[in-house]
Amino acid sequence: VSQYGAPLLIFSWDETGQKLSEQITSRLIDKPLAIYLGDEPLRGEDGHPIAPIVRAVIRESGQIEGLSLADAQELSRLLNAGRMPVPLGRWVEEGGNKVFQPDVPLYEKTVDATLGADSINKSILAAEIGVAILVLFMLLYYRFLGLIACLSLGIYGVIILAIFKLIPVTLTLPGIAGFIVSFGMAVDANVLIFERTKEELRAGRSIGAAIEAGFSRAWTAIRDSNITTFIVCAVLFWLGGSLGALMVRGFAITLFIGVALSMFSAITVTRTFLRLVVASRLITNPAAYGVKND
Questions:
Q1: Which residues contact 3 (CB under 8 A, 6 or more apart)?
Q2: Where does CATH 1.20.1640.10 sit in the chain?
């Protein structure tokens, strides 16, 4: 604000701006200098172009007088933003004068999506191979329990993909990684339950009692490990936002959703399948549950 209470807009240039300002203002002494946004002059609140009179050559810094408070604030905001929304173009020589040609890029470079698509395809292939090996291991080692686990994981996969579709979640490479990790943790929960169940069967309990005891004994370990993972997801989500790493946030979100759903699939879906089998008495041989008969 001047000594008379009028708004003043004080500005300064960097090294490049100083050279340009000196060249331009030296030709416009006692003449108006309009400020343009693209092809249109910047207008004040009265609708007239903002065009202060150049009183002297401006090099490092200067000030603009005669602006209303609203116009000064708007122009200051645009200058402080570091850029103005102008059309893409370049200056060319025509007849000894420099003429601005809009919509003409300085250079063009085309980057196709082959690399990104190839990375995603390889990630999906790796996930398919991992799931196939996982299913094979569960069937060979846990036998009937492994089959139940595979059915539970199939339901888990359908539900989590439906959730990703509803939210919606864009599966980038970190998102796919989070999904695969959560899939592995869902298997881990089933492994804990089955190992506890096998211990109960070896101790001489009936199949039904062994299954219920297996779930009860494994629950605390599953709960604690998943709570730890939730804390890690929260930290990753916070760090991703603080550091501007959105891919880290994507990994944290997909992992959080997947682990939360894995608790449901392991405790509810797997348990329901096993209770149905026990109630039907279709499979009563402990060997089918991975326990050798003495």
A1: none
A2: 114-289
